[in-house]
């Protein structure tokens, strides 16, 4: 299954910069593993004029339960608000061989 995942990252005030940097490095390693394992397909930064940074990702997993476990294990998970939307194939999807207008 494919899932659209919105991640809003909120680093708690007072968090030492060294901890933020360490977690960001660990997050990059974890993301690379998700790519290697076929779970993380794409990532985008969403434009934010104010507030916390947001990321939009396309993920693959056998179920939402599996995806929840994968996302919960990320080094930045404690600082994330995560919204998951399950995606279903559309009959007109050109990537699935559907008609193109």
Helix fraction?
25-40%
Q: Could you state the order of secondary-structure elements as H and E?
A: EHEEHE
Number of strands: 4
Widest beta sheet: strand line-up: 2-3-1-4
Q: How large is the count of helical segments?
A: 2
Name the CATH architecture.
2-Layer Sandwich
For the termini, the CA-CA separation is 26 Å
Structure overview:
With 101 residues, the chain is of the alpha+beta class. It has one domain (2-89): Dimeric alpha+beta barrel (Alpha-Beta Plaits, 2-Layer Sandwich), CATH 3.30.70.1060. It has helices spanning 17-36, 64-72, and strands at 2-9, 40-46, 54-60, 80-87. The chain is elongated, with a radius of gyration of 16 Å. The model has no long low-confidence stretch (mean pLDDT 92).
What's the quick description here?
The chain has 101 residues and is an alpha+beta fold.
Secondary structure: elements and pairs:
Blueprint: E1 2-9, H1 17-36, E2 40-46, E3 54-60, H2 64-72, E4 80-87
Antiparallel strand pairs: 1-3, 1-4, 2-3
What are the main properties of this structure?
single chain, 101 residues, alpha+beta, Alpha-Beta Plaits, four-stranded antiparallel β-sheet, 2 helices
């Amino acid at each position: 299954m494919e899932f659209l995942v919105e991640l809003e990252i909120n680093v708690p005030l007072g968090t030492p910069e060294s901890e933020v940097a360490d977690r960001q490095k660990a997050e990059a390693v974890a993301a690379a593993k998700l790519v290697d394992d076929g779970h993380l397909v794409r990532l985008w930064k969403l434009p934010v004029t104010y507030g916390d940074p947001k990321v939009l990702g396309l993920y693959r997993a056998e179920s939402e339960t599996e995806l929840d476990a994968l996302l919960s294990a990320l080094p930045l998970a404690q600082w994330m608000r995560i919204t998951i939307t399950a995606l279903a194939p559309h009959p007109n999807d050109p990537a699935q061989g559907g008609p193109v207008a």
